[in-house]
Amino acid sequence: MESGANMKIVKNIIVAFSLYSQIPMPRFQWTEEDRKHNLVFLPWVGAVIGAFTLGLYYVLQWIEAPLVGETALFALVPLLITGGFHVDGYMDVQDALKSYRSPEEKLEILKDPHIGAFAVIRLLMYSLIWGAAMSVLIRCGRMNLISIYSCTFFIARAGAALTSLSFIHAKKTGMLHMETEKSTSVDRVVSALELMVGLVLICLVHRFIGFVIIVVTVLHCLYYRWLCYRNFGGVTGDTAGFYIVTLEEVFLVTIAVLSYFI
């Protein structure tokens, strides 16, 4: 019985990493049971990104690379591991928001595979802000701040999992509905615990920054709920990607700004 339960967990992990990352995973025929707890393991992908980010920082300590090169390498870590999976959702949401149409029409825009001008403009703005903040963090050269930044990938995905499991869904179809249809209160509890663990880890590294990150996480969650309910009538898989991408940048900018004062 115990080995069967362990095998189910292993399959859930494999499916989660197959969906949310580009990391090679064993192949098998998925069932509904194998997809049941996907979101619970979404933060683990963030943990892998954080580990590679921290490892890259250690390597760059021994290599004298130009600042722009180091910034580009740090940007590549999450993109290579996830394949830009969440960026797609971010861009779709930006196109929908800038259409200024009804919630029903905005949901249709989310399904449109074409890229609009506003998505490109917003992604360019995002990239410039991210690059500037990352450059500040690299120049600062403080190991504790890089460690905190590495933890934010886990926290952002834990928050995305919790909100996806807890908030009203905008539609009864799509990837998010499929992933959460069989979820239970246990999934929400585990996701909440994962989020708390990530926040506690940051507090252990630096108490004040940890407190600020907690406040930022709560405020971003409230903003995300308001945004989704007002514009789409609830959350979707695309808005979950939007949540992760925007929160990761807010975290990075927050840490970069605080580096001047602590």
What's the helix and strand layout?
Elements: H1 2-20, H2 42-60, H3 67-82, H4 85-97, H5 103-111, H6 117-140, H7 143-166, H8 175-180, H9 185-205, H10 207-231, H11 237-258
- Give the oligomer, counting copies of the same chain as homo and different chains as hetero: single chain
Number of strands: 0
- The pLDDT mean sits at 90
Structural class: mainly alpha
Q: What is the count of DSSP helices, taking H or I runs of 4+ residues? A: 11
**Percent of residues in beta strands:** under 5%
Q: How big is the Rg?
A: 18 Å
Q: In sequence order, what are the helices and strands, one letter per element?
A: HHHHHHHHHHH
C-alpha geometry:
globular
- Helical percentage: over 70%
Largest sheet: none
Residue runs with pLDDT of under 50 for 5 or more positions? none
